[in-house]
Specification:
The protein is α/β, with parallel strands linked by helices. It has a 7-stranded parallel sheet, with helices on both faces. InterPro entries: NAD(P)-bd_dom_sf, Sc_DH/Rdtase_CS, SDR_fam.
Length: about 280
């Protein structure tokens, strides 16, 4: 098929990458999508919501009636564009610049969410960074700490701050990765954090089951987000995603519906589970 191709080779020099510099731009919502009010009267926090999968989730949730808080690290231009796109869908958006590897910033995000919207129902832990290193010995202490603090500490901290305000029927959704299940040789520390997210999700789901707070996750495969040109060489970017059964990288718009499903009452009997939008890679997990 014509669409079964990679993306043009390109690189960015800074993590976690900037969506406005990508060519082509990632698709953030399915053309002609019409919301049905599935998240009316709900308030969601999305970490890393300024671009990539986070942007797609923010726009889709807005289409479905949610009020959305986007926590982002530093990508102000991307965050403002996500706000604009979500508001075009009728959304009410609050942008909060925060370093979620710091517990104090997670506390700020939750407190500002409550001050603005008066409640919290959905937590999407999605922020992540990755740094390619070909050998384990090349991962220095600073990189290891930064990867874990961004990719898994932030999930703990934000969830800890949010939990006192979640109630029966509310939900937490964590972003893992296909690399949690089969690894990736040049992303050892990143893959390790994603494995930790799987264990965090499964453990927390059983811990909160008696409170009827559901905890699930999404484990995407190769998705066209700013992390890709910010991580890999031009040649690697041009080949990104072409080796999965569907023959191409996925778009954020193809991942966001997994989060929507898990956030709605349609998933009321699902907790401790992962959805795998990965282009057809069979993981048997």
């Amino acid at each position: 098929m014509e669409e079964d191709k990679g993306k043009p080779g390109q690189v960015q020099s800074h993590q976690p990458g900037k969506e406005y510099k990508m060519n082509p731009a990632p698709a953030y919502i399915k053309p002609g999508y019409k919301g049905n009010g599935k998240l009316n009267d709900k308030v969601a926090i999305i970490s890393g919501g300024d671009s990539g999968i986070g942007r797609a989730v923010a726009v889709l949730f807005s289409c479905e009636g949610a009020k959305v808080v986007i926590a982002y690290l530093e990508e102000e231009k991307d965050a403002e564009e996500t706000k604009r796109l979500a508001e075009e869908q009728g959304g009410q958006i609050l942008l909060i610049k925060a370093d979620l590897s710091r517990k104090s910033d997670c506390k700020k995000v939750v407190s500002e969410t409550l001050a603005k919207f008066g409640q919290l129902n959905i937590v999407i832990n999605n922020a992540a960074q990755q740094y390619v290193q070909r050998q384990l010995e090349d991962i220095d202490e600073a990189q290891l700490r930064k990867t874990f603090e961004t990719n898994i500490f932030s999930y703990f901290f934000l969830t800890q701050e949010a939990l006192p305000h979640l109630k029966n029927g509310d939900t937490i959704i964590n972003t893992a990765s296909v690399t949690a299940y089969r690894g990736k040789p040049e992303l050892i520390d990143y893959s390790s954090t994603k494995g930790a997210i799987v264990a965090f999700t499964r453990s927390l789901s059983t811990n909160l089951a008696s409170r009827n707070i559901r905890v699930n996750g999404v484990a995407p495969g190769p998705i066209w987000t700013p992390l890709i040109p910010a991580s890999f060489s031009e040649e690697e970017v041009s080949e990104f995603g072409v080796h999965v059964p569907l023959g191409r990288p996925g778009e954020p718009s193809e991942v966001a519906p997994s989060y929507l499903f898990l956030a709605t009452d349609e998933a009321s009997y699902i907790t401790g589970q992962f959805i795998h939008p990965n282009g057809g890679e069979i993981l048997n997990t």
